[in-house]
Specification:
Blueprint (H helix, E strand, L loop, with lengths): L19 H8 L1 H4 L7 H12 L4 H5 L3 H11 L12 H7 L4 H11 L5 H21 L7 H20 L8 H17 L2 H11 L28
Length: 227
């Protein structure tokens, strides 16, 4: 099975282009910082065709692990004489390679998926409710609310990974939640104030508009005509 049999030009990065490797490394810092032993070209190709929201593989092969295997074959990972993938590749496919999991999450977050933002919101709610429970603040509805939030987190995780009804293994979920936790902290007003107090300002990567971005001062519409 060859890459040329499929069209990936609608993906965020087209794996068929000559500058694919350079482009994805320049566009996503985590890819540029990858220090694992797996060949970058094959690994990055596999991630794109497997997880890109516009990948034909994601749309046509609904079973999560069937799609992982098919994409590995398209990316031309070597197999042993018995037809099995090398151990390192198998670990990657099973989600046991933490460095690869970081890359997967970094790629998925490029799409600003509403489901990902919902996931952050539900994790934030779970954190707040759990904190209240630890302080003894709960009622008869608390357990039911937590159960609902947990179900939503599980569902949204599956949507983000494109895994349908197949639950991702814990290692890959861990990488996703570590990234989501950073985003959750950004959305928490109390933590924003704390960061400003301790660091003297917000980190450079806090604003999506860059370090030099300064919003205009708020003004009333009626003030626009005044000099």
């Amino acid at each position: 099975m060859k890459q040329s049999e499929y069209e990936f030009h609608n993906c965020l990065y087209d794996v068929h282009t000559m500058g694919f490797l350079k482009s994805i490394q320049e566009g996503i810092p985590e890819f540029n910082n990858y220090k694992g032993l797996l060949p970058k070209k094959k690994l990055f190709t596999w991630i794109v065709i497997m997880f890109d929201l516009n990948s034909p593989m994601r749309k046509t092969i609904t079973n999560y692990y069937d799609r992982k295997k098919m994409c590995a074959e398209i990316a031309q990972w070597e197999k042993k004489s018995n037809g099995e993938f090398d151990d390192e590749v198998t670990d990657m496919l099973l989600g046991k390679d933490e460095r690869v999991n970081v890359l997967i999450v970094a790629y998925l977050t490029q799409f600003s998926m509403p489901e990902y933002l919902q996931l952050i919101a539900y994790l934030n709610m779970s954190y707040d409710i759990t904190r209240d429970v630890m302080k003894g603040k709960y009622d008869q509805n608390t357990a039911k609310t937590l159960d609902y939030i947990t179900d939503r987190v599980r569902l949204l995780t599956n949507v983000v990974f494109g895994s349908g009804q197949v639950d991702e293994i814990m290692a890959a979920r861990k990488a996703l939640y570590e990234t989501a936790e950073k985003e959750r902290i950004k959305l928490n007003p109390e933590n924003i104030v704390k960061i400003i107090q301790e660091e003297g300002g917000l980190p450079d990567d806090f604003s999506p508009y860059g370090k030099k971005y300064n919003p205009s001062k708020i003004k009333f519409i009626s003030d626009e005509g005044k000099k």
